Fold this protein.
Amino acid sequence: MIIDHTLFASPVTPQERLDFTAKFYPKPSIFGLPRLFFIGMILFTVIVFWWGISLVNNGGRTELSGGIILIAFGLVPFFSLVLRILTYKSKLDRSIKLYRFATTNGLGYQPKTPEPIVRSGFIFNAPRTSVRLMYDRIFRDGERPFEVGNFYYRTRSTFKKHETTHNYGFMRIELDRNLPHMLLDSTVDDIRLPGIHISSFASAFSKDQVLKLEGDFNEHFTLYAPKEYETDALYVFTPDLMARFIDFAGGLNAEIVDNSLYIYSTKPFALDKPETLETLLGILDTVGVKALKQTSNYRDSRADTAGTVAIKGRRLRKGIPYAIIVAVVILIILDFIESAFGN
C-alpha cells in the first residue's frame, strides 16, 4: 500500500471539505450538527441569557439568585457550541486526510459507522453500554478483507449511577474458517502488585483457561483458550507466530473469535499519523498472513459439522475479576461509612 506522507501533510482545500461533507453528511448541517438542532441551541442560549440578565437587573435578592442560576445554566450549551466551532475544522480535516489515504489505496472509509455495530470481538459486546461509536474506520472488502479503526463506548455502573468511558483501537482480519475462542493478552499494561497480577484487558475471563507458553513468551503475553482446547490453541499460536506478535504487535492484545482475528490497543489509534498506519499495515502483512496460513487447515474434531467449532469451544468462560471484587468491597465500605456517619 502507498503511505505517502504528503497525503497527510498537504493542507485540505475548501473544495475537499465541500465534497467530503456532501458525501458523508448530506443532510443540512452547521459545524457538523443538524441545522435545526444548531439553531435551536443558539435560540435556547439567547433566551436563557436574556431571562437571566433581566432577573439580575430587577435587583431583588430572589431575582438575583435566579438570574445567576439561569446565566450559569445557559453557559453550558454556549461553551459546547464554542468548543464545537473551534474544533470542527481540525477534526474535519483529519477525517479528510484519512479519506485521502483510503481512496489512494482503493480502500473504503467511514468517519462514523452507524448502529447496529455487529462484531464478534468482546469489546463490541460489553454489557450495560449506553453509547457505542465506531469511528475512523478504514476497510477492504473482497480478497483478504480487513478493517482498522477506533471504538468508543460507555458502560453504566451496576452499583452507582455513573458511567465509565472506554476507547480502543482495533484491527480485524478475516480468516478462512471458524476457530475456537482464544485471547492473547499483552502483559505490558498489566497491573502488578505484591502477590497480585491483574490484567487490564482480559480480567473478565476465568484464569483457569490460561495456557503456559514455551520459552519466554509468557513474559510478553498470556494466552487464554477454552478447556479441552489447549492443544488447538498451541496448534494456532506456534512459536513462530508468537515471535511475530512480539516483533510486530508487542504491547497490543489479540483475540481470535469465530472467523476473525482482532488486534486491540487499549488506546485509540492515531490513524492520521503515517507511522501508525505503517505499523498496522506491517501487522497485517506479517501477523495477519502468518495467522491465515496457520489456521487454513484447522479442523475441530469435537464438532458435529465440518468447518464449525463445538459449542464449548466457541466462547471463553467468564470469571469474576479481582478488580471488580476489590471495587465492590470498597463501595460497600464507603456506603456503610456514608450511612453511619453521613448524618
Q: What stands out?
A: The chain has two domains: 6-106, 110-324. Residues 160 and 331 are 9 Å apart (CA to CA). Residues 6-106 form one domain. The chain has a mean pLDDT of 87.
